[in-house]
Protein: ASC domain containing protein
Amino acid sequence: MSNKCTSIRNYFREYCSRSSVHGFQYIGEKKRPIFERIWWFFVFAICLSGCAFSIYTVYKKWEQSPVIVNLANSGTPIYKIPFPAVTICPESKSAEDIFNYTDVMLKKERGELLDPLEDTRFEYMSLICNHDPNLRLSNNETFPEEFFDVVDDIKPKFYLENCLFMTVSDDCSSFFFPILTSEGICYTGNMLDRSEIFKENVVHYKNYHQTNSSGENWTLEDGYAKEAGLNVYPIRALASGAMNGLNFVINTPKKNRDFACKNSIQGYRVALHSPTTIPWPSQKFFRIPLHQSVTATIQPTRITISDRIKTYSPKHRNCYFANERPLRYFQKYTFSNCKLECLTNYTLMMCHCVNFFMPSRWKAKLTRIVSGDNTTEICGTGKIKCMKSAECKFLIFISRKSNFSNSVVLMQAAYLLRNLKTLDNFTYEDLKKSQMDLKCYCLPICSDLYYDAKITQTDWDWNSWLGFRRNSTELRELMLSLMEILYFLSVRLICNKRLFGRWTGPED
Structure:
């Protein structure tokens, strides 16, 4: 046994003497004190631990983000990118001659009694307009299907004139169609039809979000098909520049201006987005004021991904492809659609109803929205605070899931929640400790398309412009009348004398 141990010790000493690892030769060197051997052993152990920790750190970094993102900027021909979907939302939500929201609100503040029709319309419009908690409402927790009919009946008419795309006159009514958004009824153009965005189980109101054009020749990931011609949908500009853009004039009658619904702000909100994305005009938009000429310079940005990245899992590449993650309401995945669906599910979980603009599966006869085995309805004015609270908490949830630096986000959300009277005792610490039972992890989409706009605007003296056109028309008519009088006093007299021998013309 001793011979075997001696052989092992000698073999280990030989390894130490020949090893290229620094320090090992001192551990196996003969006639060295035990303290020196122990010292070198601890030095080697510390170095080995440091290397192991470095390897572990690099591995964890690779595990969290194994893909190196390299933004290689390259120009793309403008005709390969669709013109952005344009969503226009009037700030006035009702026609004054049908329902005057300002007058009814003043009656409410004075404590006057309203007739049943006014009271019902005001209740419904309180979901769209800025909610005043001091006004006495019925606080109905749910609204029936009639809500959509009333909002549709009292909406202001949308007058678009002089539509030009690439200097070619176009029919505005065929380009823009109504759509329900967080800002109420808006009008969108160059957006895919609802049948190409939502699944079949999602029910829509009347002909809203419906176009007669098909977007089968374009996808977000692959762009336009090779066989797609010039007259393709979504439409595309064939060249850059203002002359090749979309031009239109919005005519706003005085009767369509309301000063109480949206804090006296007049004009229109405009959102530019991908044709596959549901717009959020309450979050990202620019404004077109009245009596202004607004020009938007659009800069499209298209993000594509290498085919080699597809072999990685979504967790490692940190993004989804359009057909990779199924959604309940949408046919294809986008980051915006995922957030809207998650907000819908979370609002349903907290409030047992959903907001009027959220996608839902709806039984028309029962005026109910079906979600799994449960049935809920459209949230009423009694659930406004609950819906706001759900949205705030959902934003916190998204920020925490996205690994953002969320201390500022949490403090901002806590401030918003403290303003809700029903949550006065909900503190910042409660927000950090709160856990949400919601399976929602919205990653960015791997291939994306978004549009940035730079706005310039100037005053438009449209009264003078119309006056000039009116005066020009009147002047032309006056000149024609004078020429007609001159004709009858000169040329016609001479011609009658030659033809009939008398200046009065032929005898009757």
